[in-house]
Amino acid sequence: MKMKKLHACIGAAALAASLAVSIPAAAEEETTGVDLTGLDFRVGVIQLIQHPALDAATQGFQDALTDLLGDHVSFDVQNAAGDSATCATIANSFVSSHYDLIMANATAALQAASAATEDIPILGTSVTDYATALGIDDWTGTTGINVSGTSDLAPLDQQAEMLAELFPVEDYETVGILYCTAEPNSKYQADHIREYLEDDGYTVTDYTFSDSNDVAQVTDTACKNSKVLYIPTDNTAANCAENINNIALPAGVPIIAGEEGICSGCGVATLSISYYDLGYKTGEMAYDILVNGKDPAEMEVQTADKVTKEYNAVNASELGVKIPDDYVEIGAEEEASEEDTEAESAE
Q1: CA–CA gap between residue 180 and residue 286 (Å, rounded)
Q2: Given a cut of 60, is residue 29 above it in pLDDT?
Q3: Which one of 29, 45, 105, 194 counts the least CB within 10 Å of its CB?
Q4: Cα radius of gyration (the chain)
Q5: Helix, strand or coil for residue 167?
Q6: What average pLDDT score do residues 204-219 get?
């Protein structure tokens, strides 16, 4: 299937040759190891919502393909502003334009893309569980359809261990899990981490909202009935992190978050991945499909190579939470990098 797509791209590139930048074949081969003469790929990107984590994944994806393909790839990046129906509209427009590949950033975007086409290769990223998102039983690691990608799921058992380390059951016996019911992967995370927490002796209750309009009220209820909250990688919660913080912090209720962006906004600690690296890995998978003819139906869904214990220094201090030495302050690495850059510039 993908070899046919490659031949189709060659034909399309020939029609657009007058608009393309001419690059010597030798230079192309030196960059990628493959002669890309005459090839031009068009890639559509559906991003569910603007948020630092998703933005980083999209950037990583574009950077990877640009590193590998140079001027032989162009991107149409569309943001659905958090609306599933808009995801579907964008996906259908990409299909109508006969794009060579669709990258779907977040679960709703992946579901829309999958519903829109059975032929165009689709790669997801920032998706927690592909079996849940696509309704696949007997998960084996591959989808068996025109979809693959990367998962942003940090190990839930380790997240439960983090919560127990910072907030022992003797003092924080009630845990509230706060998430959006419109995001099936949030429920997946909630269901699984609940098992680990209950095994540790916690009493766990779900507090769910249907959209951003319910967040404040549900958060207030959760804080009144919980000693600590857990928020999974949930796009609606991420978009409302400041509102959540404005309720939870004055209430003195700490939050363990599923990813760095949420933790920056309202959490105390997180076991986080690099969404940029996740997006970059997705871009490398896209290259394998577009150039090497890989079939997404047979490509295993990939996960992040490493996770990092991180903490929000401001919230931790405000709540009097003692953070172990093996945690990294959120933003510390970026600040150190900026200082190094400024020092080099001064020299």
Answers
A1: 30
A2: no
A3: 29
A4: 22
A5: coil
A6: 96
